[in-house]
Amino acid sequence: MGKKVRHILGLSGGKDSAALAIYLHKMDPQLEYFFCDTHKELPETYEFLHLLSARLGIRITYLSAERGFDHWLDVFGGLLPSPTMRWCTKQLKIKPLEKFVGDDEAISYVGIRADEKRDGYIAPVNLRIRPVYPFVEAGLRHSDILRILKDSGIGLPRYYEWRSRSGCYFCFFQRKYEWVMLSKKHPDLYKKARKYEEGHSDGRQYYWNDDESLAQIIERQDEIVANHLKSLEGGRTEHRSNRPLSEVLFEDDVLPCIMCK
Q: DSSP string of 81-98?
């Protein structure tokens, strides 16, 4: 008798994985839902996961690494994670997922859309975990995901009012405008993120952004906000449509961690 294959869906607290849960939960009652909890999440993320669980009647398993972010930051000598050094993904998300699956085989449903270009970026994290992409197979795009969320009555997480993706409050993929908004919406979390840039044991200076510290970003916040609003208006004008600014805001311009989909 062959080994049972588990069906799993990782939730990030973001729109794509949430829409995928809505899309699949009635089709596959065997689905197991999990969330890799870094314990560095926005309050709105937990709020949205609770809403999703209640509305769909699903159980979400929260996975945590044996050792948290601060431990691994010490191991890496204060080197903050970055797009080219994503040690946070491996230690806080991939390893807990592999432990969750154990020696089982699993099919992992991933919320990559048909309009995303991720060739060479969507390799499986483990040979026992086979990724599948229902939105790609069905040809569902960004507008379809927003429609699924709207029609379900669940809608978007509240942080999408000022942030373009899910992830830790100090995610290095944030736009500079989003750092400014973090300082306004969650000043306590902004202060914690800023503290991570200071006082490393090796004497080096590490920033969440390659070219600018958080202090420098806040010094330029008026300019950054003005440029952001100008960019949004330009994006809507360029498409010459009646698309709301919110939809322009949510378009992905960089590739976040696949575990944060």
A: -BTTB-HHHIIIIIHHHH
Domain enclosing residue 71, as ranges: 5-161
Determine if the pTM surpasses 0.85: yes
Q: Are residues 24 and 151 in the same domain?
A: yes
pLDDT digits (tens, 9 = 90+) for 194-226: 999 987 666 778 899 888 999 999 999 999 999
User: Is residue 191 scored above 90 in pLDDT?
Assistant: yes
> Are 187 and 125 members of one domain?
no
Within the chain, residue ranges assigned H as helices are: 15-24, 43-56, 69-75, 87-89, 95-101, 134-138, 142-152, 176-185, 187-195, 214-219, 221-239, 245-249
Are residue 190 and residue 64 in the same domain, yes or no? no
Tokens of 123: 């390799």
Residues 136 and 217 in one domain: no
- How many residues are recorded in the chain? 261
- The pLDDT score that the predictor gives to residue 257 is 52
SS3 179: helix
Residues 143 and 99 in one domain: yes
| pLDDT, tens only, 101-149 | 999 999 999 999 999 866 444 445 567 899 999 999 999 999 999 999 9
Can you tell me which residue has the tokens 């899309």?
23
CATH code of residue 78: 3.40.50.620
